[in-house]
Amino acid sequence: MNHVPDRPTSDLWARFRFSVVGSLLSSPPARGELKAAIGALAEKTWTHPVSGRDIRFAAVTIERWFHQARREKQDPLGLCLR
């Protein structure tokens, strides 16, 4: 059964990506521990923001989201809308 979003898909994805990397932004891992922290996030099963199904993401994907959010000076959430 597919979940029908009541928000634009881009908004759902932006919030989802931010929720995945948010803990890394608010409580950065100690020097040398980022790879392990991202790896732990990659091992989790997430709920797809549009379909509601279980999904997993590769560490490289989560790492890309993290670095994009970290580089964003004004609004890390807004980066995912692009």
The main sheet orders its strands as 1-2
The share of residues in helices is 40-55%
- Report the average pLDDT across residues: 86
Number of domains: 1
Counting helices, strands and paired strands, the structural category is mainly alpha
What is the straight-line distance between the termini?
28 Å
Unreliable runs: none
Radius of gyration: 13 Å
- By DSSP (H or I, 4+ residues per run), the number of helices equals 3
Instruction: Give the ordered list of helices and strands.
Output: HHEEH
What kind of sheet is the major sheet?
Answer: 2 strands, antiparallel
Shape category: flat
Q: State the total count of DSSP E strands.
A: 2
Strand content: under 5%
What does this protein structure show overall?
By secondary structure, the protein is mainly alpha-helical. The chain has one domain (9-81). Helices cover 49% and strands 5% of the residues. The chain has 3 helices and 2 strands. A two-stranded antiparallel ribbon has the order 1-2. The longest helix is centred in the first third of the chain and has 18 residues, at 9-26. The protein is flat. The model has no long low-confidence stretch (mean pLDDT 86).
